[in-house]
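Lecture notes, unit on binding sites. The following record was shown on slide 14. It pairs a sequence with magnesium ion.
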Amino acid sequence: MTDPLISVVIPLYNEEEAIDELYRQLTAALEAYGAPYEVIVADDGSTDGSFEKLSAIHQRDPRWRIIRFRRNFGQTAGFSAGFDRARGEVILTIDADLQNDPADIPKLMAKIDEGYDIVSGWRVDRQDTFLTRKLPSMVANRLISHSTNVQLHDYGCSLKAYRADVVKNINLYGELHRFIPAMASGYGVRVAEAPVNHRAREHGKSKYGISRTFRVLLDLMTVYFLLGYSTRPIHVFGGVGLISFGLGVLIGLYLTLVKFALGQDIGTRPLLLLAVLLILLGVQMIAMGLLGELIIRTYYESTGKSIYYVREELG
Ligand code: UDP
Ligand code: MG
């Protein structure tokens, strides 16, 4: 078998009824495209007949590789397992539930050929409920685009294409798969968007509820921090700390003046409490920044990661 050019990575959890149709549609799309490919399905601890179906497919078509998790680890873990094993130069991700349309694959590949490192699908006419899905996702997309400077209409779309070296550099935790383009922007990648088809879920049901919205917001904070300050935590914490400490000292000086120059009693002034609070907080923040600096040094030096990323080198 020749080395695959494309690795399709699919996290799958209890999608028994969709699998055969997924196989048909993906195979049709990929064979029409013509490049050598492999499909890596991460069975995320399915409790229905998904794994049996998948292993039957693997018997018939060895281009399909199956990873079976011991339990349900979540979609992000599925992506991560697929990325670790992918041998292709381009990694495509897609949902198993057929809400994404494999026929869009050539569109994404065309953008990759144009030289982009990441191509994100944009579900222009998204077939999900408005209030619990489309609205929160609209807000989230605005927020993420604004705070990470990677302008995408649809961070949540699973249909995406990545140049393999870009995505293999990213460590995924929690539910961070949605933020790959944002995190990769820290490496200086070129990101494009392609409008894609989206279909309503026909089989099974969605694995997520409204609580996802809050997790996305918290994740955004993590990503924002990692992107901007992970190599210089003292600048975040130290900055806030200095302001707080400075304010506290100023208020303290003012109160000292009131006491000694004007001879007033300051023991009952609420400002006194504020001054103490601000000074203590300031000292703590600065200490936290310094701790952060120690931690990132340990991180970079023990993992051998560098603080820069090279696109290419001549000579
Ligand atoms: N999925 C998974 N593990 C999970 C939850 C979901 O592998 O714990 C897979 C699921 O099988 C599907 C994809 O992730 O292929 C997207 O999930 P879903 O369709 O439920 O999300 P939605 O489209 O509703 O946002
Ligand atoms: Mg879905």
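Take-home: The first helix runs from residue 19 to 33.
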